[in-house]
Each structure stands twice: as structure tokens, then as C-alpha cells.
Design brief:
2 copies of one chain form a homodimer. Chain A is mainly α. The first copy, chain A, has a single domain, classed as Orthogonal Bundle (Arc Repressor Mutant, subunit A). Helix content of chain A is 64%, strand content 9%. Chain A is built from 6 helices and 3 strands. Chain A has a 3-stranded antiparallel β-sheet with strand order 1-3-2. In chain A, strand 2 and strand 3 form a beta hairpin. In chain A, helix 3 crosses helix 4. The first copy, chain A, is globular, with a radius of gyration of 16 Å. The interface between A and B is large, with 47 and 47 residues. Chain A binds a DNA duplex through helix 1 and helix 4. Chains A, B: Keywords: DNA-binding, Transcription, Transcription regulation. Chains A, B: One of its GO terms (molecular function) is DNA binding. Chains A, B: InterPro entries: HTH_MarR-typ, Tscrpt_reg_MarR-type_CS, WH-like_DNA-bd_sf, WH_DNA-bd_sf. Chains A, B: Pfam families: MarR_2 (PF12802).
Amino acid sequence: MFEIIRDIGAITRKIEINTNAEFRRLGLANNAFIYVIRSYEKPGMFLGELADSVQIDRTTAFRTVRKLVDSGYLRLEDDANDKRLRRVYVTKKGADVYPELHAFEQHSSDTLVSQLTDNEKNELKRLLGKLIY
Amino acid sequence: MFEIIRDIGAITRKIEINTNAEFRRLGLANNAFIYVIRSYEKPGMFLGELADSVQIDRTTAFRTVRKLVDSGYLRLEDDANDKRLRRVYVTKKGADVYPELHAFEQHSSDTLVSQLTDNEKNELKRLLGKLIY
DNA sequence: TTCAATTCATTGCATTTGCAATTACTTTCA
DNA sequence: TGAAAGTAATTGCAAATGCAATGAATTGAA
């Protein structure tokens, strides 16, 4: 059953290479596009929460977010109650680029599952949702 | 359907972090363990072939393999017919460590699919095999 | 209520990464 | 055959990465 791990590892690396190449022109390579997408969809996550949600090392995530703040895609806001937390939001620039990012993600996904029937697509989604990691 | 891409990305990153932590003591972090496993199972791939089979950048793969040659896990052999090619084999040291590497991979995989029935496991494997990447 | 354990963000540092370029074959095709 | 195109391995270099450590804030348990 280890083929599952190998398959998803290879798929992930291939998609990351493609997507980073696609968004390098926007300054969103090195998986930076991920943070813009997630912050748009769920505004106000704190840094560690955001990192954990995509399973990226917190220090790497921290530095990428800082870069995205510098380049104007994201902004940070101190939490009112817990002084440790800094919450992440997209700026207008981030919101403006979201549709393009998401469309490419959608396109990558469509290509990936293009040989599956609709039933199989749903089944795959369901099964992936049951995985424990 | 983009959830599929997100799920497998997060799973892959999480598993890589775990596995790298596990095999750092053997000098096999940074995905180095992957090359030992693959070279053991399919001896004689040339460098680019090995890199492509796991979807890792060829230059990164090249440097990792060189490190593994230096540390005694792998060895290279010039191809007899095509002078460009260098084929990769495990050494005794590499072969000796393979069972442990594969057992951990097996264990990670078992944990991942532990909430699935046997039928679901087989179905997941089948569906992943149909993906285009 | 106090102090130990936990959880944040952040930094230091050595290592790794990967794009772009180079060199050395090999293959193709006119 | 011979030049052009394609495919290896390899290197240069700037940037990214991630483990380990730090300090500040919060939580929990006695």
C-alpha cells in the first residue's frame, strides 16, 4: 500500500514545480501562492495556524509571509486579546490576484483527474478526506 | 475538485517532515532516503531517470546522489554504450539499510490509510494510479 | 496566586535548493 | 556525412529552507 505515499509525493512535487514556474512572474514562487489563496479564503488565521493548515514548517511560513507583506500581497494584524498572535489578511493586491491563482489550481486539478469519471472523482475526494496525517 | 491537490500536498509535506526527522540519524534527511529505496528496487537507473521517477529537480537529485555516494550508500557506474549516462546502484551499506527504510514507509502508509476498509484502500490505490501528472 | 509547562513569533546559522548556464555526448534529418 | 537539435551530467550563485534556540505571552495545575 506504500504506492499511495509514493504517488502522492511525486504528484505533489510535480505540481509544485509547475505552479511555482507559473507564478514566478508575480513573485509568488516557492509556494508563496499557497498563502495568498488560504488567507483569502480564511482571513484572520494567525501565522502558526496558517502554516499548520498547509503543513509547512512554521519558520519557513513566517519568512514567506513576511516577504508577501513586503511585496504587498498580505498584511498582518495584532490580535486584540492574545498579544502573541499576529493574524494574516490579504490586501487588495492579494484579493485581486486570487482569481488567477485559484483558476490555475483548478486547472491543475482538472488535468490531474481528467481520466476519472465523475463518480471516481467524488470517491477520490472522499477517500482522501478520510486519510489520517 | 481542487481539494484533491490541497490534500495530497499537505499529506506529502507532513510525511516528508516525519520521514526526514526519522532518518536524519542515518544521514538520510532531505529526502535522501527516497534515492536509496528506489535504487535498491530498480538498480541501474541513470541519474536523470531516477530524478524524473520521483519528480525531483535533476540538479537537486544530482547533488543528493553525490552525497550518498560520498557517504557510502550508493555507487555510480558509467554506461557502456552511452558516455553521457551514469547509472546508480546501492552499495552493501545501502542494501543493508533498505529494509528499515521500507518498513518506515510501510508504517507511514498504514497509518495514513488506517481509517479505510480494505476495499477503500484498493480503490484509492487504483484511482491514484489513474491520475495524470 | 505563583510557577512550571505550553504556545506564540522570531532569529541564527549552516545547509539545501533550483533556475540558468555550460560542456559533452548522441540522435536526427537534410 | 555533417550540421542542428536534443539530452545527459555538472556547476555557479543567490535565495530558500528548516532545525535549534530565544524571548514574550498565556495557560494550567497545585
